[in-house]
């Protein structure tokens, strides 16, 4: 079958430092792929190479069938990205943000009008519809950010620590949203530090110092490392 | 095109949302215009003059009377010898002293010429030059009157055919001035004073066959504001334009929103145009506003076509904003962008010909000004507003600006990288 993402020996060096060291993996279409690793293991760098923000030093990769060297702009038409930093405009309202990003992806005015209403209702954000984003609580912002990242119905969505600093209830809601889009066939590529979230993924890869040290479903990984939880798996791998 | 409209909408929303920014953009430059137009004035008044009058004749008094009547000079004291006058200059009481020698009038009548000495404190070169020039003018005037009244009365028809000469050369030129640099031991702060000891003014009395009357074209009253206001306007529009555009993209880099933009299929030129246009519109409105203030408050003449001014400004602003965007693409923080912008702006402004004429710069500096967009705009503003130059007169300026605009903005687009 054709993969949503396939990487082969993908490498990124910054001078003498190798941030991502020849990683090889495939992500199936419609899969929720967890991308785990300690801080500084190279997760964000790998993700930035895949979504066309950073040029790989070596190796090859296809995203949505397009090459990460030559077809970055093509890739960008088929992916959504929610970066680690909160990346909506803080001095605009949720509606205005929806309008702007939707417009850039080519949504028509009537579509945008309808879509922004829909999204706001779906998220239960009516009270915040006309509040500047900077005055909205973090959990709401992250849910809005996710909704905007998938508004143009991309084939793949990249989420870089989407639930960092978010309360458990909102995290739960967030994962419900992820499941919903995955069920609709969208591929989800997500990094996280929460091991309970790793359990929700179809497959998980664990990065240590720029390399992928383990890659399988959470169940198989636990068997392989003879661990009770994903937390133990992670500790066994990352502890020196 | 649609994408650009969405960017424009967003940019304007953001600009208008910051309630502090708009008044800053519009009111601050106008305040600067009102202040600078009064302050940036080269005319020197209140030059402090010390006199050493060794003659006491009627001619000497008459000459002194002329200095007293001049708005440029204040006679602040009399000295008995040059040492005393020299000290007055050293401790800052006087800007220059004039010495009228013994037998000034007698020599003038008997020999047809007499000598005067003026010494000017040249620490402030501009002021010293003007003080010398004003002194010269007064002596010329005195000479003219003296010749008419006294000589015609005495009727010396066979006096030598000559003209007034203050040593034959303009007083600013260095070969007639001896520049003395002398530390002053008496002074606690040990400031060193430069005194130009201007050589003797020879006053020659003779019927003068040539008189010079000057008519000043395009600014008949030599009004400094007429000259300065259009130039200051250029500076203000340039400052606002460069900073607004220079800070803009870099700000998105700092906040992190640029990542989100870079991961969209937006085209680079769309992004740059979307960033350029809002500030282009704002700067043009600002210019219109400034011209209105210039007209209402300073009554600057609009001899040429306003359309031409705005046409050229439109082109010029593309250059200035393009430079700002280019700076924005090469820097990572607003602080870096600020420093780089200032570096260029200071050079552009001081070498624009607004404060010092380009013609008097050394050849290498003149070569640099050919790359200075501000210099072109200052010149065009003055040519069109004051002289009424037409589109053909400024065609070179238009061509250079077009080339500049294309080059700078292409560079900005090329330099903006969505993938690093």
Description:
The complex is a heterodimer of chains A (240) and B (420). In chain A, 38% of the residues lie in helices and 27% in strands. Chain A is α/β, with parallel strands linked by helices. Chain A has one domain (3-41, 52-196, 203-238): P-loop containing nucleotide triphosphate hydrolases (Rossmann fold, 3-Layer(aba) Sandwich). In chain A, a hairpin with a 2-residue loop joins strand 1 and strand 2 (17-28). The mean pLDDT of chain A is 89. In chain A, helix 3 (94-104) crosses helix 4 (109-123). Chain A has helices spanning 43-50, 72-78, 94-104, 109-123, 138-149, 168-183, 195-199, 218-224, 230-238; strands spanning 3-14, 17-28, 32-37, 58-63, 66-67, 79-82, 156-160, 187-191, 203-208, 211-216. Chain A has 9 helices and 10 strands. Chain B is an alpha/beta fold. Chain B has 2 domains: 2-40 and 219-415, no CATH class; 47-204, abc type-2 transporter like domain (abc type-2 transporter like fold). Chain B has helices at residues 2-17, 21-39, 58-69, 82-90, 104-111, 125-154, 224-255, 257-262, 268-298, 306-330, 334-350, 363-369, 373-387, 395-415; strands at 47-53, 73-78, 96-100, 113-121, 178-183, 192-204. A 6-stranded mixed β-sheet of chain B has the order 2-1-3-4-6-5, sandwiched between helices. In chain B, helix 7 runs antiparallel to helix 9 (268-298), helix 9 packs across helix 10 (306-330) and helix 10 runs antiparallel to helix 13. The longest helix of chain B is centred in the middle third of the chain and has 32 residues, at 224-255. The radius of gyration of chain B is 29 Å and the shape is elongated. The model of chain B is unreliable at 155-199 (pLDDT under 50). The interface between A and B is medium-sized, with 29 and 25 residues.
